[in-house]
């Protein structure tokens, strides 16, 4: 039996980062993907009434909040950085990417076509370039040419970068080409795509609506 069960909807949004961390570490996990009807039946079992929720199958302990879950699993599986300072640098990339993911999720769930177009315009005018210019410099400084975001090894910071870019494309907010002007970021994204254990998973993922 897998130690952990990750419960979310049939989509990527706030759960895919943790899925990527499990895959990066080669750690088996139960990937429970609910439809809305099944969710309504168990909503009261989530401490916050929301998903994602991580359940330890051995202790039945639950954890909520997507970034807390991702950080916890990354620490457990050795993908969080090598010392306290490196961990903080990794977290700062993750939080930066999570802010951008928030913008993308907002666009995804915007039903009004005019407001959606306006949000996408603002995303390209401000959020995307400001974030990526900062991050590209950051990776140049702390990745030190390793091809990873921080230090000499893969951490969940790299997975956050990939995941946010992937969700930007999935949401129709931007394209992979938008990353080409940020060389350090582009290198990380290509590297994740080409790493065999990810390539298999990325190709086998079911199509997702969000
Ligand atoms: N800050 C929380 C947000 C959780 C959240 O808003 N989850 C949404 C899906 S992305 C949800 O559970 N919606 C269903 C509901 O509230 O009933 C996190 O990052 O986990």
Task: State the main characteristics.
210 residues, Glutaredoxin, Glutathione S-transferase Yfyf (Class Pi), Chain A, domain 2, 2 domains, four-stranded mixed sheet, 57% helix, globular, binds glutathione
CATH class of the largest domain equals Mainly Alpha
Bound molecules: glutathione
Order of the strands making up the biggest sheet: 2-1-3-4
String of helices and strands = EHEHEEHHHHHH
Give structural notes:
- This protein is of the alpha+beta class and 210 residues long.
- Helix content is 57%, strand content 9%.
- It has eight helices and four strands.
- Strands 2-1-3-4 form a four-stranded mixed beta sheet.
- Strand 3 and strand 4 form a beta hairpin.
- Helix 1 packs parallel to helix 3 and helix 1 packs across helix 6.
- The radius of gyration is 17 Å and the shape is globular.
- The mean pLDDT is 96.
- The structure holds glutathione.
Short description:
With 210 residues, this protein is an alpha+beta fold. It has eight helices and four strands.
